[in-house]
## 1
Amino acid sequence: MRNRGEQTICAISTPPGVGGVAVIRVSGPQALLICKKIAPGLTQKEIKSHQIYFTKIKDTATGISGGETVDEVVVSYFANGKSFTGEEVVEISCHGSEYVAEKIVDLLVDNGCKLAEKGEFTYRAFMNNKIDLVQAESVLSLIQSQNQASARVAVRQLQGYVSKQFEKLESDLTWCLAHIEASIDFSTEGIDVVDPVVLIQKLKAIRVDLSALVSSYRSGRLVKDGIKVVLLGKPNVGKSSLLNIFSQDDKAIVTPVAGTTRDVIQATTLFDGFRFTISDTAGLRATEDLVEKIGVDRSQKEAGKADVVLYVFDGTEPDWQIAKTQLSEVNSPVLILVNKTDLLSESQRAEFRKKLQNLSANYQEQDIIFTSGLDPKSRDRVLTSVKTKIGQLNVLDEAMITSARQYEMSRHALEMLDASLQELEKNMGAEFIAMYLKDSLMSIQRILGHVFDDQIMDRVFKEFCIGK
Ligand SMILES: Nc1nc2c(ncn2[C@@H]2O[C@H](COP(=O)(O)OP(=O)(O)OP(=O)(O)O)[C@@H](O)[C@H]2O)c(=O)[nH]1
Ligand SMILES: [Mg+2]
């Protein structure tokens, strides 16, 4: 991908399969020239940037005079420097047959195009300074977004909101580093270039901004990947019934037989702009049945991966001793669902709440939800409580990191910044302070792609699909 800038590339940009239209993208110095060869009608027109043209794609290899018409298409033209990739780009919208789209790509290749590699259009946009690496990653996030919140966050990243924060860090760190390096240069002449107190203040301010970005990843991950919720509890308490209600789907088998669910069953659902992945699990109990034993093992493992565990009681016959043991083995945040409440009176509910709070002081009023596996209204109450339990997921007001790469590198930058602050506060040599700061700065520059690194490029662009 790296040395192909001189070549003109093409690919189908719409998903495989049949659709109303398919779009073929062509980018590079010869984009229009090659397209004119397969759409001779374009040669008679004056082609202007950001205009569309109706024309025919012709296959001249068939022997038919003037070539056989492959399809009637609409061609959009973007001049060099005025497109997403920064190069000359032609987009051909044809009828959405897989055969037709592939035929057009074949014709483009026969006339001099190269097939694009995964993410090569976005890579070119990056290489031509149209976007930085943070924005390139946001393109992928936006394509992959499956809910309102993740799409919103990705669009904001694409618009450069997060990049601006990293650029500010880059510029502030550069200022500090420049002054420290100057003080090293002038140290023999006894000139104080920067007051250490000012420098400490400045670095601490950078630290505040950088930590905010690092901690935004927790929310970012939940927004992008969804919130993972696991239903846990004794057999027959109504976990599978609740899964079906939460996912609004008949996913899991429900029977009055204890031990019905043997494996982890997952369903996803969108609620309030967020994506929830909900796992139903085998009821927890000591058993001699080999299959069930494996199932119980899996339940516990699944609970370990949860953002929130929903521990389900059968409200009509709670087993406090077992619940206490089972709950003590859960390390994730827990909400208690008291199920089958359609069978409970008001006073029984109040008593239940009291006993639960005696069981552990951990369970506040808002952590206990009375549900019924027979009542779809339980869904809203439980999913709202899950969101509250997770805490603030503010997708509009803050710059949010959603990429693991950006998170790892920001954390490294923060560690190095802390190391330099420690050196500074201990009044150690300026060389050490500068060394750590340089490392921190490099990490920020790598995030933005301001220093070129083969491995990073591979990591970012290998996840893209062809045609993007
Ligand atoms: N009355 C009433 N019955 C319920 C409720 N929830 C579930 N049930 C019934 O309780 C029985 C067990 O429900 P399941 O959803 O299979 O329970 P489970 O916890 O998944 O059970 P295992 O898979 O064995 O662990 C079924 O007969 C359900 O119809 C509820 O809220 N009220
Ligand atoms: Mg079940």
Note: The mean pLDDT is 91.
## 2
Amino acid sequence: MSQTRCIYCQSQNFVKNGNYRRVSDNRKFQRYRCSHCHKSFSEQAFKPDYRLRRRNLDLLIFRLLAGGMAQREIARTVGICRKSVACRVIRFGEYAKVKLKSYRDQMPKADLVLFDEMETFEHTKCKPLTMPIAVEEKTRKILSFSVGKIAAKGPLAKISRRKYGPRRCERKELLDKLIKELKTCCSQSPTIKTDLSHHYPSIIKSGWQGKAVHKTSKGRRGAVTGQGEMKKGGYDQLFFLNHTYAMIRDKIKCLSRKTWCTVKKIQKFECWVYIYVHFHNQRVEGRDRPTLIYPQLM
Ligand SMILES: [Zn+2]
């Protein structure tokens, strides 16, 4: 068992205490009793599908979540309650986050990484969000991402302040987190490609103490295809990044443009993106039918 603490009191002293067979699939699981608080629990308590009843639907739900379907539509299609879908988004999103971190720790060090920010909004365009995403050019895998608030720009800025008050910009913290995560999986002096945004040169320079090579290219107008993320005309320096962005917009329902299915809570949305990232990284490996995360775990 990878987790070595009691789920109630976090004590490390617990002993084996029989086993049980799960009703839904007749599999056998070990039970434990804590020597400190005397409560008992099973090895299943550490798994993402703890106390879920319709485990046979999990893989289907996850393929649908990472295939551009809205949560309510999944609930209707599969024939379960919408809260059951929402609960799975959080549990498996958090799990996919752990998997992404372990991938970063194990992967061969990356030499060429592209990153940029994608923008969306929570509930209304007056409350915009930014999503810095980093992609390795060689493998096209997503290495890191995060979601946070930014202030509204242009004509909406005034309306936003009037209706919702001042909005804190979290861009700096998000970019710092991205660089910190990239440093764990990049070589000593990687090449980083970005657009011409003035936010990037200083953080790249300080992140790798000037050893990283920073290449920039001018952003171009979006084409209609690829959800506006693919660029018009000629060779695109950031093609692998923009193509990944187009895939993300297409495969996560609330990110597609001109949709009425919007982000409601940032934490839940982040979990959903982690689920997509898990599937995306399996897909670019050539696995057409991505597998669900937990069976090969623990
Ligand atoms: Zn205990």
Note: The chain has a mean pLDDT of 88.
